[in-house]
Structure formats: structure tokens, C-alpha cells
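Page 42, continued from yesterday. The earlier attempt failed because a stray header line got pasted into the input along with the sequence. Redoing it now with the clean sequence only.
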Amino acid sequence: MPQHRGWTARLADWWGIDADWVRVPADPPRAFRNDAWLGLAFVVVSVVGTELGRSIGYFEDEPAPPWLLYLLAAAGAAPLVWRRRYPLVVLSVVYVHFLVVGLTVPMVTILAPLQVVYFVALFSAVAWARDRQAMVLVVGAALFAMFAWLTWQFAVGAGVEGIVEQMGLADEQPGSVNPALAVTLYNLLVNFAYFYGAAVAGQLMWHAARRRERLAVQAETIERQTAELQRQAVVTERLRIARELHDVVAHHVSVIGIQAAAARRLLARDPGAAAAPLETIEGESREAVAQMRSLLGTLRGMDDEPGDGGSRAPEPGLADIPGLADAADGLDVQVRVVADPGAADGVPGPLGLSLYRTAQEALANVRRHSTARRASVVVRVEREVDRGSPDVERFPHGYAEVEVLDDGRPRSGSSGTGMGLLGIRERVATHGGVADVGPRTTGGYRVRVRLPLPEERP
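This time it went through. C-alpha cells are written below.
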């Protein structure tokens, strides 16, 4: 059974005593430059505050010359120039200044600018100290010295009685607490909130900085993992294309072998009749080379990996797209083919397979991630492209296209990884086509892929 940690262990953990994380500025030169400007600003404000205090009458009973007052005020604020470079040293110097000046020229230490300086020094020491154990020791010593000094100050009865008389409370007791005791407790409470508030605020800032860095590291890790998943998706898609390449080569080599055997037999009996099979061999070889060149363009740079031993059944093609409506699993799918008679039969197998996979993936995404209950699939095969169309250069011999539309909205909590769409774009790039994937302005989602057809041979 897990044991509960003691309060000392929890306290040490909160103060980061055993933490192995070190807080450093994101841009040290800029941070140290900003600290220099901050320290100089506090020096100016402290000197101006001292002069304003003289004008108000704070130093009427002070025999020290004005230049000494200015010097003491500036000396108390100047260490903030190094508050993030040497946070514990700055804290020690500032609080020694507080004790020494408080015992000799106490009115300087109660000026508002220097009160802010003491707060900032303590806050910075806790928020930026790199050695957390040394921080606890230095901050603890500083706080102990401050409260020892305050205790000594209030332990002198004449000092407290003087404050009570000055406030006109010597002869009457407005509240339930003795005025002398109330003055003592009130000042201790204010100083407790002041000093420990600075320390706690600094530690909270330290924790916030550590959380931000951890989140940044986690974000980088997630980004790397996402990139790796995308790479794996590309590799998987390319392996599928490699299997298609095997089918392409096997098909064309088989045709070439059959036609070559026929031509060999005809050459002996009727040389003229052998021209037809030889022409078929020429066309098949050219088409095989063109398709292999297109497919191999996406497979360069891949490491050789063993096959998965999958089924060698014929790959689906353009004619199999209507069959996707039967496997829609509750989704009402309407399939329409827009093509001249026989035009779909002239679409090469690899192009038909890519269009089939596109429609298959798009319909799967509709079922998984959309509220749509119906979808439409339109297959278009166009051999004649309008010469005035901007697509004539990309599709000089026509194109084959599949478009999947739905009228739903994204289903909450079902966002995918995007790997399927990445595979679609990979296939489109393989064949030199174009893809239009995204939400429609009228509602729903569109996946449209258009692939160029090869030159038609007689």
C-alpha cells in the first residue's frame, strides 16, 4: 500500500529543494539587459522619492546631509541590476543594506520605493535561484533576521509606548485589544504578509515556469510523434503502391509474353500477320515503363522491407466503385458514372485503383467523422478537354475523376489523425493529378481527385 508522505517532504517538494530543474531566462542577454534598465529605474525613483520625503518633512530630525540620504537610497536599489544573474547575492546585499541603514538612518528604509526594492529582491531570489537548497537557507536567514530585528524593535517598551502616545491612544482603548499590543501585532502581521507574500509569489512563479517548460517539452515530443506517424502512413501507402507496381509489371509482362509467343509462331507462316502482336508488345512495354516510372518516383529513398504476405487477388478498379455503396454500413450512398460509352474501360488499372481507394477512404471518413446520413459519389471520365480550359496543359489527353460529397457536419470527439487524407494526396502526387479536399461553403465535405489519362492508342 502506498504510504502518505509527511508534511516535511511535501513542503520540501513544493519549495523544489530536490528538484533537478534549473530555471534560466529564455534569452539571457536580453533578460540581463532588461534587469539593468530596471535597476537603474529603481535607483532614479529611490533618489526622487528621497527628495520628495525631505520636502514632506520625513527627515526633519535626521542630522545626515542630503547627499548621504541620496547615496543610501541609490545603494539600496542598485543591486537589482543583477537580480536574475545573481539572485541570492542580490538578496543578501539588499537585506544587509536594510538592516544597516535601518539601524542608522531608519527613515530611508521606510520610503515606498525602497520597500518595493526589498519585495522585488526577495521575490527574484525565490523565483530565479538555481540552487534551491541554497535559496531556502539564504531566504530563511533573511526572514529570520528581519523578524528578529522587528522583535527587537518592538521589545523596547518605550518605542511602542511612543507610537501609542503619538496616535492619541494612551488614555483610552477604542477596541478590545490593548493599544500597545495591537500596534505590535499589527506591524508583525503586515510584515509577515509582506515578506512571506514575496517568497510565496516567487515560488509560484518558479512552479509556473517549470510547468511551461514541461509543456513545451511535451509539445515537442507530440510533434515528433505526429511526424513519425505521418512518415509511417506515407511508408504504408508507398508499400501499397509498391504492391500495385508488382501487379502492373506482372500484367504487362504477361501480355508481352503471350504476344511474343504468338508473333514467334506467325513469323514462320505469315510474317505480315506478326505485326499486330509486335505492335501490342511495343504498346504494352511503353505503358509499363511509363507506369513504373510514375510509381517508382514515390518509392525512392525507402528502405527495403519484407512484404506482408497479403492476398494476391486482383486489385479493384474504376468499375468496382459502385460496389462501395453496398458496403456503406448504414450510409445512403448514390453512385453516378459520367462518361462516354466505353471510356471508363480505357482508364489504366493503376489510375482506376487510385480513384477506387480515394472513394473508399472518403466514404470511410464520412461514416467515422461526420453526422451525414447520405453521400454521393460521381465518377467522371473525360477524353476531350476544352482547349480554352486552364486544365488543358495538365490534362492534355483527358482525365478520370472521382468526387465524394456529403451534407453532414463534423462529429464532436471523432477527429481523426489525417493519415487517410495524407494517403490520398500521396496517390494524387504519384499520378501527377490534383486534389480538392475540404469543407464546402454550402455545408458538408468534398473530396475530389482528378488524374490525367495517358495518350489514347488505337
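Notes: Strands lie at 332-339, 374-382, 399-406, 434-439, 445-452.
Reminder to self: strip header lines before submitting.
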